[in-house]
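Lecture 7 notes: from sequence to structure.
We start with the chain below.
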Amino acid sequence: MLLLAALTLASQVSPNSTPARPLQTADGEKVECRLIQEVHSRIPTRICRTEAEWARIAKETESDLANSRNDRTVGCRGMLGC
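Predicted structure tokens for the same chain:
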């Protein structure tokens, strides 16, 4: 009987029993959290940003990657010292 009471109490206190609220800013924008693996650490960092911020970061990253490709292909072709 004691075991049954303990199991019932534990199921009511479980953090999974309540639905998680979606994160939002004060303006009502949806916030998305991601686990980001840092280069210098084995432990991922949880970073939360709005969808607009994630989109801006993705666009900047894509632009940086394209620029780095262009920098390697355009420049001193065949010249020594480059």
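Points to note: The longest strand covers residues 31-36. The helical segments are 2-13, 51-73.
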